[in-house]
Design goal:
Blueprint lengths: L1 H57 L4 H8 L5 H23 L1 H16 L3 H18 L5 H7 L5 H24 L11 H5 L3 H22 L2 H4 L19 H19 L7 H8 L4 H4 L3 H4 L5 H23 L11 H18 L3 H10 L3 H23 L5
Length: 393
């Protein structure tokens, strides 16, 4: 009997040891996940802060520069955009060489998003976004830069954007069901023309660099910008403005760190959908599956954290540069209408100037290239119409 009791006691102790070991392993795993999440949160905050800081320093957030670019009176915005796109493309080229598996994960994730889109929907979204850019003098990500820099009525652009995020979220099932996905939307340029991806990426980077160089040769950036204070240093945290090509290269380089450290492309328009999803009780969200998927999960909350950090970076830059609340604003009505159109267009297309314009186009996806071309086409057409008819300007 004593031997039997001893055996039972030993088995019980063994079982308890196994349980304790499993609990310890689970606790270790939980701690590792928490540390990983904390690291992701810190990196996202830093990238967002730098994103806002660089955009403010480059002054492309000012409504007048966005509008004037659409009628080719100013080229600060285009120089920075092309520089950022070239640097982002170079970042992807390098990642393909040093971390191909990690990059492919991001690449396929972006392709999956585009697979649900038709060219018609992507094009329509880009056209609407472009109209919003010209009317509101802003972009989805730029709204938070304008807020941080103290641009008057930028809060109305934000309100318009949130209204658009809500409107799109409620109607998404109808909007996406109105057209069938097109295979070409998720194809890349090198797949379409059947040329080696390395060759296409190199040519793309070279063409962008050549375009930036030509713009700077014919329209030097200092002729595009009227300094408020000539005594500030050329390139420091206290500068009033950075050379747009330098600013664009700095911005595009953030793509490298986002892809390498976070395994995600840069983008900001999804933050509007995440924000509006938080106002609904969960039971109501059950009726709107599109909004529901933006309600929970670290990635959704990171999109909010990113734009809040953009706001902080922009504010820091504007105070250090002595230009807080000095940018010319648009009319309040234009701010609301422009905010609504640019966010609705971005959500309809599946990305904004950063998401499609820089990230998706750097990946060379046809859908993103079409979206980018559409947004500039409609923005330019409206810009010249507005200029001719003394409308908005």
């Amino acid at each position: 009997m004593d031997e039997l009791n001893e055996l039972r006691k030993r088995n019980f102790n063994d079982g308890e040891n196994v349980t304790n070991k499993e609990e310890a392993q689970q606790q270790k795993k939980n701690n590792e996940n928490e540390n990983k999440d904390l690291k992701i949160i810190i990196i996202s905050s830093i990238l967002g802060f730098l994103f806002g800081f660089i955009l403010e320093k480059s002054k492309v957030y000012e409504p007048k520069f966005i509008r004037q670019q659409m009628i080719f009176n100013k080229f600060l915005m285009m120089k920075m955009f092309f520089s950022a796109l070239a640097t982002s493309s170079l970042s992807i080229f390098i990642l393909n060489l040093i971390a191909k598996e990690r990059y492919n994960k991001v690449f396929e994730s972006y392709r999956t998003m585009l697979k649900s889109k038709s060219i018609l929907i992507v094009c329509a979204g880009g056209l609407i976004l472009g109209l919003g850019m010209t009317i509101g003098g802003s972009c989805p990500g730029m709204v938070f830069v304008q807020l941080g820099a103290g641009v008057n009525y930028s809060y109305l652009t934000l309100v318009g954007g949130l209204m658009a995020g809500l409107f799109h979220g409620l109607l998404n099932s109808y909007l996406t069901g109105s057209s069938k996905p097109d295979a070409i939307t998720s194809k890349t340029l090198f797949e379409l023309i059947k040329v080696n991806a390395i060759i296409v990426r190199i040519l793309f980077i070279v063409l962008l660099a050549a375009g930036v160089a030509l713009m700077e040769i014919f329209v030097p950036w200092k002729k595009d910008y009227s300094f408020r204070d000539n005594t500030r240093p050329f390139f420091s945290v206290t500068s009033e403005v950075w050379q747009p090509i330098i600013g664009g290269c700095c911005l595009g380089s953030l793509q490298f760190f986002s892809l390498l450290l976070l395994s995600k492309s840069l983008g900001s328009s999804s933050s509007f959908t995440t924000a509006v999803s938080l106002i609904f009780p969960f039971k109501i969200l059950e009726k709107f599956p599109y909004l529901k998927k933006f309600r929970f999960g670290l990635n959704n909350y990171l999109s909010l954290l990113f734009v809040l950090s953009v706001f902080g970076g922009s504010m820091a830059s504007s105070f250090l540069g002595g230009v807080f609340n000095k940018a010319q604003s648009v009319h309040p009505y234009n701010a609301v209408l422009g905010g609504f159109l640019l966010v609705f267009g971005a959500r309809l297309a599946g990305g904004c100037n950063t998401g499609h314009g820089i990230s998706g186009t750097s990946h060379l996806f046809i859908g993103s290239i079409v979206a980018m071309m559409s947004m500039f086409a409609s923005g330019i057409l409206l810009g010249f119409f507005a200029r001719t008819n003394d409308f908005f300007f």
